[in-house]
Amino acid sequence: MNDKGSPRIIISGGGTGGHVFPAIAIADAIKAKVPGVEILFVGAQGKIEMEKVPKAGYSIEGLWISGFQRSLSFRNLLFPVKLMHSLLNARSILRKFKPQVAVGVGGYASGPLLDMATRKGIPALIQEQNSYAGVTNKLLSQRVQKVCVAYEGMERFFPAEKIVLTGNPVRGSVAQASDRAAARAYFGLEADKPTLLIFGGSLGALSINEAMAQNTDFLRSNADVQVIWQCGGSHYEKYRNCAAAQLMNVKLMAFIDRMDLAYAAADVVCSRAGALTISELCLVGKPAILVPSPFVAEDHQTKNAQALVDKNAAIMVANGDTITQLLPQALELLKNETKRNTLAQNILALAKPNAAEEIAEQVLSLVEGG
């Protein structure tokens, strides 16, 4: 345990990089303001946070929890058991760590931990990344002290007096501008060729991967365009030997650790419409084609993407149209400099570069009783 007087803060959430990386950014911002702070993460066993959080230098405890399947699944039979187990485990973690503030960033572990923390009277803050709030955060908002959001108009989901518009935190490295030529050299790309970055989030996306795998001839006939393709770790074995991955103008990767360089190398980005990805695209000001996942709660990715489309800050392709439309639209955008510049300017105007620092200030105000 740390010295008496140093704050103890617990941060819970994860499941995907979209929750984990912002959580780490918040922790880094808190630590920068209060170097003596003690931070403990709570995540879901077997999920990405159990690897990424220790790699970032923080301790983490894992709960035996998973999401409720919206389709019929035998796994749902275990959900009540896992939930009860996680609530009891969360109570034990809180009793041992004695945090002064609990922070929930979304994801499987966030619900049980924040539920138990608020029941114990621990000041709490939640972060809602999306433009459409999920059920768990809507319920928790009635009991926490602050709700940090990334979009205007969230009063329809949360008590207005608790809302703080901060934006979504992004990985610190992404905020640092990188040289395009150096970035392309890092990926083994040619310095002067139009470059497309295509990825489906930290876990990968089947429809986006198939848009690459099923369009080998299209990619071959447009050899003047080079592609960085992140397929996701769970998809890598399936696609590593496909014809598209063997093309000289395609660089297939399971996971990109240096997203700052990937963004810097790209002229156009094709991706899912998760909150983290959108926040990073805003920060780097990249023209983007978004393919919202239809497999998320409340269809929130479509709502995220539509918020940008309405501001002429992105293009949206429906998941069902990805195989036939994604690459042709990307190529068309690569050839249209005027359109690219318009999208880049409009998406950059939506950036909130100080989100992590602003959330850190809100967390520390709760430590001080604010």
UniProtKB/TrEMBL annotation:
Binding site for UDP-N-acetyl-alpha-D-glucosamine: T16, G17, G18, N130, R171, S202, I256, Q301
Cellular location(s): Cell inner membrane
Domain Glycosyltransferase family 28 N-terminal: 9-148
Single GO biological process annotation from the record: cell wall organization
Catalytic activity: di-trans,octa-cis-undecaprenyl diphospho-N-acetyl-alpha-D-muramoyl-L-alanyl-D-glutamyl-meso-2,6-diaminopimeloyl-D-alanyl-D-alanine + UDP-N-acetyl-alpha-D-glucosamine = di-trans,octa-cis-undecaprenyl diphospho-[N-acetyl-alpha-D-glucosaminyl-(1->4)]-N-acetyl-alpha-D-muramoyl-L-alanyl-D-glutamyl-meso-2,6-diaminopimeloyl-D-alanyl-D-alanine + UDP + H(+)
UniProt membrane topology term: Peripheral membrane protein
Signal peptide limits: none
GO cellular component: plasma membrane
An example molecular function term from Gene Ontology annotations: UDP-N-acetyl-D-glucosamine:N-acetylmuramoyl-L-alanyl-D-glutamyl-meso-2,6-diaminopimelyl-D-alanyl-D-alanine-diphosphoundecaprenol 4-beta-N-acetylglucosaminlytransferase activity
Classification via PANTHER family: GLYCOSYLTRANSFERASE (PTHR21015:SF22), UDP-N-ACETYLGLUCOSAMINE--N-ACETYLMURAMYL-(PENTAPEPTIDE) PYROPHOSPHORYL-UNDECAPRENOL N-ACETYLGLUCOSAMINE TRANSFERASE 1 (PTHR21015)
Descriptive protein name: UDP-N-acetylglucosamine--N-acetylmuramyl-(pentapeptide) pyrophosphoryl-undecaprenol N-acetylglucosamine transferase
Origin species: Haliscomenobacter hydrossis (strain ATCC 27775 / DSM 1100 / LMG 10767 / O)
